[in-house]
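[Q] Does anyone have a clean structure-token version of this?
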Amino acid sequence: MMDKTGRTGLRAVPAEALTAGDVLALPGGGDLAEVSAVAVENDDFGVPALVVATIDGGRRISIATGSMVYLEPADAEIGVSAVAADHGSPEALVAQIALAHPDSDAIQKVAGRLARGINLKSGSNLQDLHQLALALLIDEGDTASALTVADLLAELPFDGNFGRWKWIEGGLAIAAYLTRHDDARSARYSAAIRAADDAETDPLRAKTSAMYRQRQLNEPNVYDPEILRASAAGKTDVERDWRVLRIGVLLYLRAHGGSETLSRDVLERRIAAELAAVGALNDQLA
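[A] Here you go.
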């Protein structure tokens, strides 16, 4: 498949997912170059605005946050695509993804549990898949694999079990964000995430549920007190965990279409800011 650079075989990722060691297709359909360093520059409001990639030779490439860049896939990523194309089992997909991230304890731990067998009606298996998709997106910047795992969840319908649905909903939110530059595909995930909204058939209960849901959308819990306390106490690992939960809430709000107080554009900026913040905390913990 040919991408916008005119090359074949490249994969598209958000600019904020760039990391040192990636092989980047340069502007104007030029050559490929290895990225030696990545920095994020904020605007005057403290929101990440530019991703600056330094390539071999010291040249700096500036990319607006939210833009897509094109990378040469690693051998392991080519393997993931091949397995997906062959309609491999969920276990095979997870195993192949784990092979691509041998140094990630979090991914290896989740993949080890899922290797015993994936039952898509098991709430604990769905939770593990959701955790794996988040780790791939947030910690590894592996958007291709994150979308592959999220799609395993996104294909499941709402069956009335809200315990399982919250993990499926999380997968749909991740998929909607990762496909945000493909309006039609992203809209399908967003439509699916609202399936539970219409589950109540009693008119009075449905009205009450809609009012409660709108209040949650307008005044979401994004864990401000918890994050501030952890930051003030210097508990970097705790702050990171709360910020990951915040990202999950913001992804859901974005996929749901935003709210009366938070537009989709604002949510996308906040998601980018949180991804950058967690990346910085991960660096401190390394």
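[Q] Thanks! Anything notable?
[A] The chain is about 55% helix and 10% strand.
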